[in-house]
Design a protein that fits this description.
378 residues, alpha+beta, 2 domains, five-stranded mixed sheet, two-stranded antiparallel ribbon
Length: 378
C-alpha cells in the first residue's frame, strides 16, 4: 500500500525491515541450508564413535541426521522461503537438538547446549516479534531437559541452565539488536538517496522508481497519466537581489505548500534548480488542468518568514499508457512535453498553466534522461 509522505507524494508503507527481508529470502534459505548440512555432517561423526549414542536411540539419531540432510538439500534446490518457514525451521532445529542430546550417552561432552547457537543466530537475524521471543523462551526449557540427567543436585542444574541458556539468549539478542541497527542505517541511507536535501521532496531517482507503479495502476484503472513541470518565475532575479539563502527559503516554502496540495497518490519531485514536477493519474485533461491551477495558487500563496514569494509557470502533458512501453522512458517523454508547455506559459506572461495533449511519441534516446537540467532564468 502507498500513502502520503512528507512531500505529499506516494510512499511505500512497507517497513525497511520488510524490504530487507524480501531481498534476503534466498540468503536466509541458503544460510539455513548450510547450517543444517553442517549439523548433519558433524552429527554423523558420532555414529562412527563407540559408546557415544545410546543403543536404543540409534535409529532415531540416524533418522534425525537424514532429516537434516534432506531439508538442507531441499533448501539448496529451492532457496525461496517465507518467514513462517524460517520460524518452523528454527523450532525444528531446537527440537532436533533436544532429540540428539537425549540420544547421546553424555550430553555434556558430545552435545553441548552451545550447539543451539545455530538456531539462535538464524532466529536473531531473520525473525521478529513473538517468533523471536518464543525462541528465547524455549531455549532454557530445552537446556534444562537436556542437562537434568547430568546433575545430581538441583542448585547445580539451575546454575548451569542459567549459564548456558543465558549465553545463548544474550548472544541471540545481541545479533538481533545489531541487525535492527543495520536495518535502520540502511533505511536512513535509502531515504536520503531518494530525497532532495534542500526541500525534502522526492528527487529524480525516486520519481523514476515510482513511474512503474503509476503506469501499472493507470493501465489497470483505465485512466491517463499526467506530468506537470513547475518552474518558479523570476527566481534568478530573486537570488541576485536577496541572496541564495532567500532563494532556498522560498524553495522550501513552495515545496511545503505544494506537498499539502497534491493528492496522496501523486508524486511531487524536485528536478533541479527551481524546477519541480508532479506525476499522477487523471481521468482527462480537464482534471489535470484543475489540479495544476490548485498547484499554481498554492505557489502564489506560499510565503517565507521574511515575506518573499514567487509565482510559477506550469506545463501539463497527458497521455494514456500503452501495454509494453517502458515506464521510465515514457515518463521522460511526458515530462519533455510538459516542459515545452511550461515554456509556452513563460512566453504567455508567466504565473499561468498551459496544457498540451501529448500524442503517442516515438521512442527517444535515453542518454539525456539522467542529465541534470539547467537552472532557468525564470
Amino acid at each position: 500500500m502507498t500513502g502520503r509522505g512528507p512531500d505529499g507524494g506516494a510512499r511505500d508503507r512497507t517497513t525497511a525491515g520488510a524490504g530487507l527481508w524480501r531481498s534476503d529470502r534466498p540468503v536466509a534459505a541458503l544460510t539455513i541450508a548450510v547450517l543444517l548440512m553442517t549439523g548433519a555432517v558433524m552429527g554423523s561423526v558420532n555414529l562412527l564413535l563407540a559408546d557415544v549414542i545410546r543403543p536404543a536411540a540409534r535409529p532415531v539419531y540416524v533418522a534425525t541426521m537424514v532429516l537434516l540432510a534432506v531439508v538442507s538439500t531441499a533448501l539448496f534446490l529451492r532457496p525461496r522461503i517465507s518467514r513462517w518457514t524460517i520460524f518452523g525451521l528454527v523450532m525444528l532445529g531446537d527440537l532436533i537438538y533436544l532429540v540428539v542430546a537425549l540420544s547421546i550417552q553424555d550430553p555434556l561432552r558430545y552435545a553441548t547446549p552451545l550447539m543451539m547457537l545455530f538456531a539462535a543466530f538464524v532466529a536473531a537475524w531473520f525473525l521478529d516479534g513473538w517468533m523471536f521471543a518464543l525462541h528465547l523462551l524455549v531455549t532454557p526449557v530445552i537446556v534444562a531437559v537436556v542437562l537434568v540427567g547430568s546433575y545430581d543436585n538441583v542448585p547445580g542444574l539451575i546454575v548451569q541452565v542459567c549459564v548456558d541458556s543465558g549465553v545463548l539468549d544474550l548472544a541471540a539478542a545481541g545479533v538481533f539488536l545489531l541487525r535492527r541497527r543495520i536495518e535502520r542505517l540502511l533505511a536512513a541511507t535509502q531515504e536520503q538517496s531518494l530525497r532532495d536535501p534542500l526541500t525534502g521532496l522526492s528527487n529524480r531517482r525516486h520519481l523514476e522508481e515510482q513511474a512503474a507503479r503509476v503506469w501499472r495502476q493507470a493501465r489497470r484503472d483505465g485512466v491517463r497519466v499526467t506530468a506537470m513541470v513547475l518552474d518558479l518565475d523570476h527566481f534568478k532575479q530573486l537570488n541576485d537581489t536577496h541572496g541564495h539563502a532567500a532563494g532556498d527559503a522560498v524553495l522550501r516554502a513552495v515545496s511545503q505548500a505544494l506537498a499539502t496540495t497534491v493528492r496522496p497518490q501523486d508524486v511531487l519531485a524536485r528536478l533541479g534548480g527551481e524546477e519541480l514536477a508532479v506525476l499522477g493519474m487523471v481521468g482527462d485533461a480537464g482534471e489535470a488542468h484543475r489540479l495544476a491551477e490548485r498547484l499554481r495558487a498554492a505557489v502564489a500563496g506560499a510565503r517565507t518568514e521574511t515575506g518573499q514569494a514567487v509565482t510559477a509557470s506550469i506545463g501539463i502533458a497527458v497521455a494514456r499508457p500503452v501495454d509494453g512501453e517502458d515506464p521510465v522512458d515514457s515518463l521522460w517523454r511526458l515530462l519533455d512535453g510538459a516542459d515545452a508547455a511550461m515554456y509556452q506559459a513563460k512566453q504567455a506572461g508567466r504565473d499561468r498553466v498551459v496544457a498540451v495533449l501529448t500524442p503517442r511519441p516515438r521512442p527517444a534516446p535515453a542518454v539525456e534522461a539522467a542529465a541534470e537540467p539547467e537552472t532557468r532564468a525564470g
